[in-house]
């Protein structure tokens, strides 16, 4: 069973990213899992359309948080999959 941790308890999620997720209506690990990394990234991008959102800080961080890995350890193939998914 997945513990429903607060966002800042997850790997890769600091205060600023947690605030951005909260702005998008994502307040817990369970909510981030439900949205998934791609949708969470798109929601934040929608809230901040004029801001560049580095993939490693957002998309990859969300994936790593859900897998309990540093964002750079999620693997190049998975990074490519995620990057393709946000382009759709």
TrEMBL record:
The UniProt entry, under InterPro entries, shows:
TfoX-like, TfoX_C
Q: Identify the residues that the record assigns to the TfoX C-terminal domain, covering every copy.
A: 4-85
> What organism does the UniProt record list as the source?
Prosthecochloris marina
Name-wise, this protein is: Competence protein TfoX
Q: Where are the transmembrane segments?
A: none
């Amino acid at each position: 069973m997945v513990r429903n941790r607060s966002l800042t308890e997850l790997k890769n999620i600091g205060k600023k990213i947690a605030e951005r997720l909260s702005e998008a209506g994502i307040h817990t690990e369970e909510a981030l899992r439900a949205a998934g990394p791609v949708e969470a990234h798109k929601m934040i991008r929608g809230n901040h359309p004029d801001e560049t959102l580095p993939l490693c800080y957002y998309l990859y961080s969300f994936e790593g948080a859900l897998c309990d890995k540093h964002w750079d350890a999620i693997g190049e193939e998975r990074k490519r999959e995620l990057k393709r998914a946000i382009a759709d």
